[in-house]
Amino acid sequence: MNTQVVIIGAGPAGLLLGQLLHNHGVDAVVLERKSADYVLGRIRAGVLEHGTRTVLNAAGVGTRMEAEGLAHEGIELAFDGQIHRIDFEDLIGREVMVYGQTEVTRDLMDAREAAGAVTVYEAEEVTLHDIDGDRPHVSYVKDGVTHEIACDFIAGCDGFHGVSRRTVQDRVQTFERVYPFGWLGVLVEKPPVWPELIYAGHPRGFALCSQRSPTRSRYYVQCDGTDDVAEWSDDRFWDELRRRIPPEAAEVLQTGPSIEKSIAPLRSFVAEPMRFGRLFLAGDAAHIVPPTGAKGLNLAVSDVVYLSDGLKEYYVERSSAGIDAYSARALQRVWKAERFSWAMTQMLHAFPGADPFDRRIQRAEFETLRGSRAAAQALSENYTGLDF
Ligand code: RFL
Ligand code: PHB
């Protein structure tokens, strides 16, 4: 089999890249280790930057997002029970879209199917070959049979634990911070507690009130890095959430049985560069951010926008300038999102071993945002998304 680009991974990065390339007339095959249902069963990000929304609309996959997504003009920051609204619309004239990653993935899968583009699910033992030559190829096993696809380029969109970055592990430089805590997330069929998202810093730990629809909510509490979900009954979760969010929210919180509950570890990670010969890394395969800034999915989108532009230039204009600039362009934006996600994490979490000095610095950070329009504007620019 032959194609122009083999895309490894059918998460948001791989599927969106497939859609953008299809729109540019470039052929691609997507290879995914899991089944489509498994991919759709993962509950992850919920906030789309304004640029992500524009990209999804321009790519022709934004219809349901525009109909069902919830446009938000601000967020609430809370610290020790005190609440302060960051009004994006007033501060910088922008908004974000609350629309789950599961829905974005479903829309991209539907568009791919409608276009008749090839996705191989449950592809095992995906292996990359000859990435430094002119004609790389990728092998995989499906239903016990080995297949090979020859291509011009390989896009490694296979997430943090994928095979692509592992293939070049002797050549990457990595930068990492592992946080000593995780986020315990619960999905519940109840209306959101508050019109907007609440990010709450509290001595007992961080909490976040998010949402998926007018009838479905997503909540998180900071937990120990070593905790097991089995230790967290629904009752324990709701008690802990109520203690950490502002009293006016706790009073009106509607609880119910969790329909999903999982723990995500928190990590900052960057692999440099993002290109090795004819292999490009994109999304979580190249970098991880703690979810506090809601940047993970959005960074995957900016990566594949740069990459698809570069590949379009290569095929349509016969110029390598775009693919040659890919790694540097993507990394410049990645590091700004890393900084923002790290700063939000520092401001709002309870760090083991933190002393009263650390706590006062966190409070001063919150007071700076409350008292300075410039500081609130800087947060708003980062949260709603830096320009591509
Ligand atoms: P994904 O979504 O991980 O998709 C990668 C895909 O590659 C497949 N794969 C392979 N396929 C073939 N062969 C192999 N050897 C393969 N190895 C892996 C995987 O099955 C998968 O389908 O990466 P992508 O596309 O780069 O998208 C990135 C986003 O998914 C990610 O940044 C965010 O979801 C991060 N993230 C969150 N971000 C937020 O902004 N808010 C959140 O609340 C939030 N929660 C999360 C998260 C990430 C999590 N992970 C990765 C552990 C919660 C979790 C649990
Ligand atoms: C979510 O809704 O899952 C969500 C929202 C904002 C974040 C992280 C996760 O910062």
Question: Could you outline the blueprint of secondary structure elements for this entry?
Answer:
Elements lengths: L4 E4 L3 H12 L4 E4 L4 H5 L6 E2 L1 H9 L4 H6 L1 E3 L1 E6 L2 E6 H5 L3 E3 L2 H14 L4 E2 L3 E6 L7 E6 L2 E6 L2 E4 L6 H5 L5 E16 L9 E4 L5 E7 L2 E9 L9 H11 L2 H4 L7 E15 L2 E2 L2 E3 L5 E2 L7 H21 L4 H28 L7 H16 L1 H12 L4
Parallel strand pairs: 1-2, 1-12, 2-8, 5-14, 12-19
Antiparallel strand pairs: 3-7, 4-7, 5-6, 9-10, 10-11, 13-16, 13-17, 14-15, 15-16, 17-20, 18-19
Helix pairs in contact: 1-6, 1-10, 10-11, 12-13
The structure holds 8-demethyl-8-dimethylamino-flavin-adenine-dinucleotide (RFL) and P-hydroxybenzoic acid.
The site of P-hydroxybenzoic acid has 9 residues, from loops.
